[in-house]
Structures are given as C-alpha cells and as structure tokens.
Amino acid sequence: DLEALEHEGREYILQLDRAAGIRKNRASVAEWAYTSNITKENEEQRIQVQLELSKQDKQSWEETKMYKWQDFQDFTLRRMFKKYSQLGVSALPDDKYKLLMQSVSGMESNYATSKICSFKNATKCDLALEPDITELFAKSQDPEELRHLWVEWHRAAGARARDNFTQYVQLDNEAAKLNDFKDVAEWWQAEYEVADFEAQLARLWEDVKPLYQQLHAYVRRRLRDKYGDQVVSQKGPIPAHLLGNMWAQTWNNIESFTRPYPDKKEVDITQAMQEQNYTALKMFQMSDEFFRSLNLTAMPEKFWKNSIIEKPTDREIVCHASAWDFYDGEDFRIKQCTTIDYEYFQTTHHEMGHIQYFLQYRHQPVIFRDGANPGFHEAVGDTIALSVSSPKHLRRVGLVSGDAEDEQTEINQLYKMGIDKIVFLPFAYTLDLFRYGVFRGETRPEDYNCHYWQLREALQGVEPPVNRTEEDFDAAAKYHVSADVEYARYYVSFIIQFQFHRALCQLAGEYVPEDLTKKLVDCDIYQSVAAGNALANMLKMGSSRPWPDAMEALTGQRAMRADGLLEYFRPLHDWLRAENQRTGEHIGWEPSKIQYC
Ligand SMILES: C=C(C[SeH])C(=O)N1CCC[C@H]1C(=O)O
Ligand SMILES: [Zn+2]
C-alpha cells in the first residue's frame, strides 16, 4: 500500500542522501586541491574524480527513477526525490562529460593565470588580475593607461577563451536536453522555481532604470569635467575603462573625484584601514565578530585552519573569492587573495555570509544544503555589509571619525552606496541576458561580441574604449563567464538584500518608516539578537522550501521587489533629478560611435 511504499521511499532517500554527502565531500576536496594549486596534474586529478563521481550519480539516478515519488504524501520527501531525480551534467556520456569538464577547466585556468604587460614599462609582463591589474585600474586616472590595461586583459582572458567557450555551450546544452530542458537558459532559470523568472527580471529593471539613468547622467558629467569632452561625450555612452573597475560593474573607485559634495570630508575606508595596519585576518575576525553579535554561529576551528585568505607566493591559485562547504558539517573554507581595501572589506563579509548560510543549514539533508534560491546565497553577506558600511557602524569601529551626518554628508553616503549597488544591476542583467541568448542559439559564435556590446550599450550605457571585432570575446574576460557560474543570482541578490536589510532593521528597532530619526540609510543591526534570530530562522531552511516561503519568513513579502532598494535610495534619486535638471544634463545616451558589430 501507499503508506508502506512511502516508508520504503523515505529509507531509500535518506541513505542516498548520506552517500551523496560523501560524494560531494570528495568533489569539494578535489576541486579545492586544483583551485588552490593550479597544475596540470591537479587538473587531471580533479577531472578524474568528477568523472568517477558522475558514474556513481548516474547509478543512483537510475535507482531513484524507480520510485513513484510523485504520489507520496510527505511534501519534504517529494521535494527530496524531485531534486535527486535531476541528474545534471552527469547525464552526458563519459567522453562528452570529460570534454565539457576540460573546456570549462581550460577557460578557468586561463583566466586565473593570465598575465599582461605594464603600460609604463613594456618589459614588465607579469601583471596578474589580482592584485596588480585591479589595483592599477582602481588608482590610475590616465585614460591611456586604463585603455591599455583594459585592451590587454580582454585579449588575454577574453579572446583566448572563445573556442573553449563555444565547445562548453554546445556540450552544456546537450546536458540540458538530457535533463529535459530546452537549453541551459531554461535549466538555470529552473533554479528559481517561478514560471516567469525572466519577466520578473525585466520588471525589476523597469523599476530601477530611471534611478540608474539619473546616476549614469550625473557620473558622465563628472567624468567629462575631469577628462574633457574629447574623452567623455555629452550625450553618448560612458567609455567602460574610466569607471574604476575592469568590467564597470561597480564604480566605487571613482568616488573621490565624482562625489556630490567634494568639500565634505571623504569617507576613505581603504586609507583608514591601511593607516590602522589592518590585516586580512583582522578583517575576517571583525566579520566573524559581527555575525556572533547577532547570536549567529562562530566560525569553527577548521575554518581558521583550512581557509586561504592571502595570495600565496609559491604557486598559482584561482584568486576569485569563493566560499566552500565540504558537506561534512564541520569543514567550511574561504579562498580569496585579500588586499587591504574597501572592496575586500565588502568581499570578506560577502564570503562570510556564504559560510554562515552553510553553518545554519548544516543539519539539513545534503540535498537541501543550498540557498533558498541562488540569489539568497549571494545576499546574506551583502545584507550584513549594508549595516557594516553605515556611517554609524564605521564610527563604532573607528574607521570613520567626526560628526554625525548633515544632509550633504548623507547624499555623499547614498552616492557611495549607489555607485556600488545601483550601477551593478544593469551589468549583472546584461551578463545573463547575453548568455541566455547564446544558449538559446539566438547569439551564434560569429555574433558573440557584437551582441554582448549591444546589450551593454543598451542597458548599462557604456561602450568599449576601442573598436571590437569577432577576434575578441569580451564576455569571457569576466570570471563567471570563464568559470561557468550563473550570474542572475547577483542581480537577484542586489534587489532582495534591500528587502532583507529593511526587515532586519525594523526588527532591530533601527528603522521606523516615516521616523526621520530612524532612517534606513543609518541602520546598523550590530548586536541585535532579534534581527539575528530572524535571519537564522530563514537561513536554517536552506532549500527545503520554495524561496517565497523563506522570503516571507524574514520579510513578510513573498516576491522579489525593488521597493526596498528604491526606498533606501529615494533621497539620492531626488537629489540626482534636481542636480541633472540644474545642469541641463541629457538623461540616457545616444548610440555609440565605437565600432563593435
Ligand atoms: C565575491 C564573489 C564570489 Se561569490 C563574486 O563573484 N561577486 C560578488 C559580487 C558580484 C560578484 C562579482 O565579483 O562579480
Ligand atoms: Zn558570493
């Protein structure tokens, strides 16, 4: 009878889940060994282990299919079976699976080991993305040097990945079809468990676009003031190499000469950290202390022992920051090439947020040890960082001195947050709109660069510093494209983190709607056990429930909505509209004069 069958199903899936935990641990160990010491041997070893595990996954999958789990009464049991009945890339035959692993691994190691020559010293050709090129790009205000760094990096890390990428698209799409998806785009979107995910992304963009266009117009004017109208036009897109970041995804490095009220003292966290002899370890300890102040879980012993928090000098590693779950309930790690600056201050909290999520859901079955959706996992650390980067908190930890804010200082603060959070949205949206088109076959290899830049111009209002051709492949110059990491998760995160932040601030008594002494921009949830407990309750759920249940548990809302972000930035939006009106700035951008199609 059904009762007995369901009982048998439960026994089966629980033993499968334990076996899956051991396999995932082995996969993480092999992946860590390779990405923390990039050698041919470790790459082959990693692919060997992946191949072996995919065979075991396939065997289990054949067995799981035999159960009529769709009729089971228990929601959680049905959900476990549903997730285990999706095999993933292991559905490919061995030879194609291996080819797919090799093409992604080839792109990723190319990205991690690419070097370029210095602009000022053509014989110095050992510049790596981290820390060398990133630091030069953050500090240089010489358009020629920035253009050189941009072109050379996009040649080394982008163009060189084109063939591997084309093969990866072909094989990943085959795997998608073996999982009953039309293509990888549909597979990626299925992770969000809502039928109209892509339409929701578009609606969120419509909500935020007016604010972005005001900020874009203001920054273009300030860049024109600095570089002249031969470099930055009145009404065209902004040249992508002038925004302080290789991908123009956050503009925080141009704050010093573009902030609204330059005579207000600058909040320079990087300088303060360096003056106070901050170390990478101190940044991690401060972040851990913040989480503990919320009554969340302390980093376990193994975390401090096994993490890599500074770039080694004796070997090549994948420097792009990452957080690791070894699925044994006690081994959790971060690997990043920390430098002492504001960006890595944020990144450290971002990665620690991933670890806290791992810790909170570590008692869940292995199959539910995941974010409620991929965006949730990216939003945890950033939500905490919204409190940490508030003037109130920075004063608390001594990274900012002096008086409480006046109106102008508050606009400067919102501007600082806006050139990080608002400008990121069209970048993130572009990256996966581009890849959806590629996976759907709407963008063929001969159109890659043309379509990529059409989207970047249309949504972000940026243009490449020089003409581009199909010899180039600029999309792969971004880590996540070379590493097969889906990116809509960050777009979702940058929206929902403001819904989380607002809910936590209310729980902490730090934010009261309409109460001007309890404004969202001043909120710091530090030491609020009420906020921490609510966050923990949501994180503990992992992916055991559809994400609207998790969203509702914390915020009372069941949907992703831009209202948190728009409320946070409303004073800045008002200021920008008035300022652009005052200067008669053109809002939006005319077509670029750069050739890229
Ligand atoms: C820090 C990480 C590792 Se999950 C990251 O890739 N982020 C964090 C913010 C956006 C995105 C990026 O760097 O492009
Ligand atoms: Zn992340």
Our measurement of the CA-to-CA distance between the termini, rounded to an integer number of angstroms, reads 64 Å
> What is the succession of H and E elements?
HHHHEEHHHHHEHHHEEHHHHHHEHHHHH
Q: Report low-confidence residues grouped into runs of 5 or more.
A: none
Bound molecules: seleno-captopril, zinc ion
**Proportion in β-strands:** under 5%
Q: How many strand units?
A: 6
Radius of gyration equals: 24 Å
Q: Main beta sheet: strand number and arrangement?
A: 2 strands, antiparallel
Quickly give the structural class. mainly alpha
Shape label: globular
Please list the strands of the largest sheet in the order they lie side by side.
1-2
> If you average the pLDDT, what whole number results?
97
Would you give an account of this structure?
- There is one protein chain.
- This protein is mainly α and 597 residues long.
- The protein is 58% helix and 3% strand.
- The chain has 23 helices and 6 strands.
- The chain has helices spanning 2-35, 40-64, 75-84, 94-113, 129-139, 143-158, 162-178, 184-190, 197-227, 269-275, 280-293, 301-306, 342-360, 374-388, 391-396, 407-421, 424-439, 448-460, 479-482, 488-507, 529-540, 547-555, 563-582; strands at residues 115-116, 127-128, 238-239, 322-325, 332-335, 462-463.
- A two-stranded antiparallel ribbon has the order 1-2. The protein has a two-stranded parallel sheet with strand order 3-6.
- A hairpin with a 6-residue loop joins strand 4 and strand 5.
- Helix 16 (407-421) crosses helix 23 (563-582).
- The radius of gyration is 24 Å and the shape is globular.
- The termini are far apart.
- The relative contact order is 0.12.
- The model has no long low-confidence stretch (mean pLDDT 97).
- The structure holds seleno-captopril and zinc ion.
- Residues 249, 321-322, 347, 350, 490 line the site of seleno-captopril.
